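chain below, 731 aa
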Amino acid sequence: PSVPRHTNRLINEKSPYLLQHAHNTVDWYPWGQEAFDKAKTENKLIFLSVGYSTCHWCHVMEEESFKSKEIGEIMNEHFVCIKVDREERPDVDKVYMTFVQATSGGGGWPMSVWLTPDLKPFAGGTYFPPEDGIHRVGFRTVLLRIAEQWRENKDALLESSQRILEALRHTSDIRVRGQESPPPAKEVMDTCFQQLSRSYDEDYGGFSKSPKFPTPVNLNFLFTYWALHRTAPEGARALQMALHTLRMMAHGGIHDHIGQGFHRYSTDQHWHVPHFEKMLYDQGQLAAIYSRAFQISGDEFFADVVRDILLYVSRDLSDPAGGFYSAEDADSYPTTTSREKREGAFCVWTAEELRALLPEPVEGATEGTTLADVFMHHYGVEEAGNVDPMKDPHEELKGKNVLIARGSVELTAARFGLEPARLRALLHQCQHRLSSARAQRPRPHLDSKMLAAWNGLMISGFAQAGAALAEQGYVSRAAQAAAFLRTHLFNPDSGRLLRSCYRGKDNSVEQSAVPIQGFLEDYVFVIQALFDLYEASLEQSWLEWALHLQHMQDKLFWDPEGFAYFSAEAGDPSLLLRLKDDQDGAEPTPNSVTVTNLLRAACYSGHMDWVEKAGKILAAFSERLQKIPITLPEMVRATALFHHTLKQVVICGDPQGEDTKEMLHCVHSVFSPNKVLMVADGDSAGFLHRQLPFLASLERKDGKATAYVCSNFSCFLPVTSAQELRGMLSP
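prediction:
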């Protein structure tokens, strides 16, 4: 590449997204006091642009507008321009996205917002094309019009921004009203199930026609609904909906059949043509949900998908020090000589390429059959490409194929006169060869930022998979990542989490000059991960750290007047609103997960005020849970756990003994959403005994490992057989 002609202040940042814009013609500032002071001193409006490094339309707007000399000059003359990485600063993103959604009816990234010098928004949108079109006003025109408004109608703009802020404060205020209590579990669960059932796609699974998102929160809810309604037709339907969706996703093009892992979402109803970026938070949640599918069904198909996801993350999203990177981009150069990136270029194939790579005849198959014939049939490859032109408006995928398993292994095997086991081996051979060929292509951009929250989700994925699949290596990988968090994203002096760290030169781990403090989601997802890791490893230091972080979360984020937790802590004057998320989306909202965290924390510590706090969160969200529970399926699930009370499964026995291991295997192999597991014997059990005095009264029967299932610290009869224990674990 040639030497860049421009360099702005973003060159001093660590965020890969901000560094992508360090050579734009725009004189970008990072979010901070220097930019705010400049806007006030020069009496200039602020243009705020928010995105992330693997965002396709962020790249498009950069190429079209932020690299344009003419548009850059307009921006620099009339505005103080600020760039924010939404993954580094979710607090800033949420404040202004709330504004954009309220005023435009939609949202997304890149987010473009115009602010007064005191940071109040008055105009905004998402992507703008550079010039006026038939249906859209161009970015250049918008910039000039807003600059003119500021010159000629400054007072009206300031007044308008104040009114908008007051309205946002009012509409975004989630709090307990009067004497509200947690809503009844049955009605909320049933309503949520009915709403999901109505939006369910009977043919292809999922909960919309298109675009189609994985939504692990919906599937998690359906598994819990099934567990609590096993003998009812509604329970059977909930299970069928979840398992069918997971199968169709795994067969679809949203699943990378060569490089493993899952892409962000499908642009069509069939899970076929994805938006190709890969996000860590999807891999973590999907590893956990496919592990549960395996627990429930016993079907190795789901276990294989778990292994596939974790192979991808271990190979491509893992830092040598133990942390997990954030994402891989959708766009890449098709060849080493290409000048322009294309979406999906790293992942798609022409029929011609596949025939050249897989030419060998298949012994024992119908005469004349080659490896390419078998592979192309199984994965829906067509000579002219298999992508619907309607799903490819920019013709980036013309003539290309996105692999999708159209039928079962058994059907393909029958078509070519092969045994299913032989076909699986052949497909594996093809995948290995194509993987080697793909490795020669230029890789997509890797966002090597490491976030506490997303690392927490991935630790949960590894820990739950390790327990459900009895794979100790996955538990060890989860523990390695947790140790990474404790070293690099935790300040032992203050007892607080940090938000992010970064891969530096020579694979070192670097921190910003002024580290970003952890947000609510960082605490919630890390605490959940540490509970999951304790249950998988029985290493009590993870439990101790989780309880410490829960106390810190209470101190930093709890709203003592309106109840529930704020997304960000108090005290930052640049944040105009202190918000509480009210929707489970690509990730569950932190208040949803924290209800279950608090119930688990109470079971491990005996602190019943955490149960009370969980109830207060449900009370604060009561109206939303009763009217539109489909927006909060994870919190609905937590409502059921709150009312059903968690079961403490206590095992007394030598952790290394075979009888204890058999009991633990039983607990890990059963899907029981309302259990917490603890082992009351062994070297590291002292902490639990100090927290829970009732454990001292439990003992092994006849010298054998013995399990007690307890509720509210009262225990049922002891059992010494895994078979009996399995029966007691049903909700």
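The radius of gyration is 27 Å. Residues 648-729 form one domain.
thats it, cya
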